[in-house]
Amino acid sequence: MELQLHSPSLHSVADMILVGICGLAFDVVVFGFLGSFLLFHHGWQSLFVVVSVAGLAWALLLRTVSVRSRSRHKTHYKLSANSHMTERTLRLEVPPTPGPCTRIPWKKLLQQPPVLALFLAHFSHCFLFHNAISWLPTYFHDTFPDRINSAWQYNVLPWASMAVGSVLGGWLAEWMITQNVDMTVVRKTTTTICLGGGSLFLLLMGVVGRGGQRFSPTLLCAILSFGFDGVSVAATVSNPIDLTPSSAGALFGAMNSIGTLPGIFGVSLTGYILQATSNWVLVFSIMAGFNLVAGLTFLAFGSGKQLHLDS
Questions:
Q1: Which of 29, 75, 88, 265 is the most buried (most CB within 10 A)?
Q2: 289 CA to centre of own chain
Q3: Contact 233, 98 (CB under 8 A)
Q4: How many angstroms from the chain centroid is the CA of residue 307?
Q5: Share of the chain above pLDDT 90, in %
Q6: CA 190, 191, 194: angle at the middle one, nearest 5?
Q7: What is the DSSP letter of 10?
Q8: Against a cut of 0.85, is the pTM above it?
Q9: Which whole-number Å values give the CA distances from 7 to 13, 37, 146, 279, 285, in the listed order?
Q10: What sign does the dihedral 205-206-208-210 (CA atoms) show?
Q11: Nearest CA to 282 among 140, 74, 86, 139?
Q12: Which class for 54: exposed (0-12), middle (13-18), buried (19 or more C-beta within 10 A)?
């Protein structure tokens, strides 16, 4: 988030964040396809080994890149040539000393309706996201047991559509900004698309999939639901930098801390409901209900304008 504040190469915050969101979706697409192949042909152990090795390799790559980048920026030498001189002088540029840390007024910040509406909207988005990543394969496996060979489709295609939705959401937000649309309208529009579209096709997926006979239309609903959910890159995910540019990283961290709660409790709640009722439509209705309440709350209290808080 702090990188987004200082990056000169990207035209908007949404463009920067969608790189990270697309990276997540790309990871799930690759390992969804590869994992399905390894699982069916070599078992769970091979999948765990491949994922672990890939994670370690990526960590070593990031470590190497960060060390080289730090050493390159720590001491920067610049050659300056004079048109009338044959000699070049070597000048050392010392990076500016960072200023003192600004104290974040959390008490006042958490009393602001736009912040609370943002937290609720992001919580709802993560409730759908964490449940989808945990339970979608189980839903297709239980509903369409005869399509086990098509597991790669529902493990890969919805996540690919999320990457597409992230890109399109970023483009939409940037286009609206270039048209001088108020930032509050931009964030409310993208949040409505994200929560509303994701919920609508999630409900349709449960209805269409009843009976286990229409695999392709059900998969299409899942793809569209994830695609709309990907628009969050231009909605709640980008909103902290609108509200508090000077402390966007801290607000983004607090928002994501709240977003982890559905991953802890929401997934367990879904499992309990399924164990008690075996009703997938009820589960999808609860997710859609969360999104509806959060979407209406954000429409009423959300904002894209900077909050002016006394230190």
A1: 29
A2: 21
A3: no
A4: 24
A5: 39
A6: 85
A7: -
A8: no
A9: 9, 39, 50, 47, 40
A10: positive
A11: 139
A12: middle
Q: What is the dihedral of CA 118, 122, 124, 129, to 10 degrees?
A: 170
Determine the angle formed by the axes of helices 13-42 and 44-74, rounding to 10 degrees: 150
At what angle are helices 151-178 and 215-229 packed, to 10 degrees? 40
pLDDT band at residue 310 under the 50/70/90 scheme: low
Residue 39 burial (C-beta neighbours within 10 Å; 0-12, 13-18, 19+): middle
Which bin fits 10, alpha (ψ -120 to 50), beta or left (φ > 0)?
beta
Residue in this structure with the two tokens 């108020």, named with its chain if needed: 182
For the record, the structure tokens of 157 come out as 């295609």
In the numeric block, which tokens belong to residue 265? Answer: 């409790």
> Quick one: tokens of 159?
């996540």
**234-260 CB burial, b ≥16 within 10 A, e <16:** bbbbbbbbbbbeebbbbbbebbeeebe
Q: Output the six-digit token pair for 20.
A: 């990270």
The pair phi, psi for residue 9, each rounded to 5°, is -90, -10
Confidence at 10, pLDDT banded by 50, 70, 90: very low
* DSSP reduced 3-state for 144: coil
